[in-house]
Fold these 3 entries.
Entry 1:
Amino acid sequence: MNVKATAKYIRVSPRKARLVVDLVRGMEVEMARHQLLFSKKNAAEPVLKALNSAMANAKNNNKLDTTGFVITAATVDDGPTFYRHRPRAHGRSAPIRKRMSHIMIEVGAPEGEGVKEVEKAEKPAEKKAAKKSVAKKAPVQKTTKK
């Protein structure tokens, strides 16, 4: 079973983010984490966040044993683009494109291996304590010295 995580509207150009994603596609998750932690690329941080999110989804939402998982698919798609303008010579302006990315990471067991579900530990039956009726005490009156 493959589990996805998506990071949307990341303020990194898709071309630069694809360089980082191409490094880790197909790797084991632990190796990919080390690769991303020590990468000097600016796009490595959001890719690492998406990878950690996919692993957390597998562990918490789907109750899977995540040991030995690999990155089965990783894509970077174009997001919206902010357009800004820069003044140029002779009163003209040139556009500046501030691009965004949508990063999708999919993790799963390597091909040929099954996915193990984590067994839930059964909670011991809680004893319901009978409520004891407690007599209320009378309020204490304060005495003042005159």
Entry 2:
Amino acid sequence: MNLRKVLSTFILIMGVGMSQDAKQVVIACNLNAISKAERPRYSELTKKLRAGVRDRAELPDGYSYNLDGSAILLSQVGEWISLERLCCPFLTLTISVAGGESDWLLTLTGPKGVKPLLMEEFPDQQRTRQEYGARQNSMGTFTIPAPKRSS
């Protein structure tokens, strides 16, 4: 099986057809763009990033995320961006830092159709907490209660 056929199949599985318009960007992640050696670090950084999201604001072409600087370091956000751009070259990733502020603003934008992918990768934290019955503890972190055992 040649590479072109594999990629075409992958893109069709992702629900995005090949574009005849050269200006239209195909929205398809290529997880193989991140080396096997880098994947554990990428996974760790993604978890930290998700945990650090305080708030999400919708933009016309994506979302901006207010990140808790005590949950993820600025250098870690930069490292995550350097890996994320390998597998998702259709994204525009921007980090904003204001003076002495301890929080960061991460903006992820892209072509039409990118929002559902971003919502899946970074779900609304408040809704997720409500759906799973999470409770905020005294340290400000959320825990999901264990399922009740039947007697």
Entry 3:
Amino acid sequence: MRRFGFVMASMLYATVATANPAGEHLAYTVGCVNCHHQTDKSIINAPPLMVVRTYSLPEFRKLMKTGVTRAGRDMASQGSVMGFVAKEQFAHFTDAEVASLYDYFTKDWTAQRGIEEEKKIPIYFKHPAATTKSRPK
């Protein structure tokens, strides 16, 4: 019985200690990380994803489904990529998917992780003249 308790406690710890896999999966597959951290700011000037921590879940849901910030800024009407993506793509997220992303960005995402992702920006975004010879045709 003691062994069973140890196994159950270990499983509970593993469950609690793991990141939000659904939120992480969405963050990487729908482009959150790409636009906010892996694309040169001269192309898409998106704020770091740590900004999500300044939103409540209802405010984040509104942003993701309508493109309207918590301050009332309609990003699509101002020509922002996020505004169009929210209205045309993210609006189709379920409430559970939005909550999963919110949990991931508010509990598991760190500023350091954003910095690490920014290191992945392809060199040709930083120095186009230096890489024109190596670009595929």
